[in-house]
Amino acid sequence: MLRRLPYASAPLVALLSICANSPQRAHAAATQVGVEYFGPGSVLVTFDTQPNGASIPNGTLLGSLYSQWGLTFGPTNWASDWAGIPTSLPNTATSGGPPGGPIDCYFPDGVFAVGAYGFDFVLRVFDKNGTLLGNIGHTDGTIGIYGGSQELGFLGIASADPICHAQFGLYYDQQTAFGFEIDDLRIVPGGVTPVQQETWGHLKTLYRSGATTQDK
Questions:
Q1: In this structure, are residues 164 and 110 in contact, taking their beta carbons and an 8 Å threshold?
Q2: What domains are defined for the chain?
Q3: 22, 118, 128, 133: which sits with the fewest CB atoms below 10 Å from its CB?
């Protein structure tokens, strides 16, 4: 399923510089973020239904399935109902080849943050020129899916420079026998900058102080 979460009530400033036509400029630091970062205004992709609500059958190539939301996938990326560690059922996203090959997410208009759940995996994000903006990983320290509650992890990266390509890959080259997947992909689209992306804690602080985004 792909759905846009409710926007915060304060007006949001539109993205001034997108992947297709933004001028070359110095790269701002990319930072690792948790799932709580993806609050109001973010987009959730569970790989269970299409944007129109129709179910996604096992084996469906993801390709341009979500293109109306500014998201496309690599040619070997597909929805699978064989889920080693799912966070929503029935589907996860996986790669059909080479074994354990990457899951590539492309954002023609650019996004300011991307993240997903997985196990023993890495996340790399790139700008429109293919320049690496950030590279992080998660593992419980062992190959496979037998690490209990420590196995599942969330990887997310936020960047002030638009992210145009996010690649999820294997943490260990030897783990191909255990499969490879991500689930519950989250995105902060181009109209919501990291500075404007409000967490619930921040919103409560603003409410208690009587301040609003317009006051800042």
A1: yes
A2: 2-8+27-215 (2.60.120)
A3: 22
